[in-house]
Amino acid sequence: MKYIITAFTLALSSLVFTQAVMANNDYKGDYKKSYKKDYTEDYKKAVPPKKAVLPVDLVKADFAVMVLGSSGPVATSNGRAGSSLLIFVEGKPTLVIDTGSGSFKSLALSGATLADAHQFLYTHMHIDHTSDMSAMVKSLFFHRLGAGLLLPPAINFYGPDSDVPAYDSMSAYVDGHYDASIGVERYLHGFAAAFFGGQSPFVPIGHNLPFDVSSNAITDVLYDHTGVSVKSIPVFHGGTPSVAYRVEYKGKSIVWTGDTNSSTDNIIKLAKKADVLIYDTAILDNPTPEFLLMFHTTPTRLGEVAAKAKPKKLVLSHLSATTEANIYSIKKIIKSQGYRGKIIPAEDLQVINVW
Ligand SMILES: [Zn+2]
């Protein structure tokens, strides 16, 4: 009887085993079949011809900006990503400014690649401006690989210095992520070495910019080989070390305020006669809670600054559910302060060509 039970158990387990192997083989067979199907004769059919116009196709001028994210830290059903901009020079994405939550997804939808964009600018170290940094960096690796390019000699990260315990300086932030010994994403060195050959060609460099808001000195951040220049100025954002940027190319200019309550006139100085001024529009004139007045610019103050700086176009970004719902009255308030240029509410994946 014992032998019968043992034989039965063996037979049963062998049946189960055989079925498992068969299932596994079936899986492999199907996988092979679908692989072959997708990547050989039916591949062209599987990838439909491009009909829709991708956002990247809307870049027409020599100098342009694409909004990758036009919101702040609150996830809402409007689907906006956290703050992020992509600057195009001669049709190529060249600079990334802020990489807020969801900007990686926007980049994917845009059809643009980061193959030629290895300069990252950060206005401040809040999560709605930084969180997709590593996702962007790793995508940059693959975009360069796809374009048959080696990694650039360095990937540069520019952002404010810090003397506040709650915030790292830009260089400390970069080291905290990518230092080969202690960075939380240190594996990227091994990854880059494996993909690009030999020793790690991943050279991340953090650059610290002045953030003292009592100064209105403009800092020359970089002058790129493409002819792009970038300047920064400190701005007040409730005590968070923060800067705003002005990007210039062939006499044209794009300014991004980052987050600020504009309590100083620094934005007026930086944005003077800019072609495009992209502004933090997160609050109304009487926000709740009131302490938001320390962090963001009211429509009235935004109008005052715009009236004095006189940018050709004013783009309202870093929109919140509240400001998005009140965009018409915000525009009216801005105009009432004397601004006469064009006011455009930002949208994710919107392209602004600077002619
Ligand atoms: Zn923000």
TrEMBL record:
<dbReference type="InterPro" id="IPR036866">
    <property type="entry name" value="RibonucZ/Hydroxyglut_hydro"/>
</dbReference>
<protein>
    <recommendedName>
        <fullName>Metallo-beta-lactamase domain-containing protein</fullName>
    </recommendedName>
</protein>
<dbReference type="GO" id="GO:0042781">
    <property type="term" value="F:3'-tRNA processing endoribonuclease activity"/>
</dbReference>
<feature type="domain" description="Metallo-beta-lactamase">
    <location>
        <begin position="224"/>
        <end position="318"/>
    </location>
</feature>
<dbReference type="Pfam" id="PF12706">
    <property type="entry name" value="Lactamase_B_2"/>
</dbReference>
<dbReference type="InterPro" id="IPR001279">
    <property type="entry name" value="Metallo-B-lactamas"/>
</dbReference>
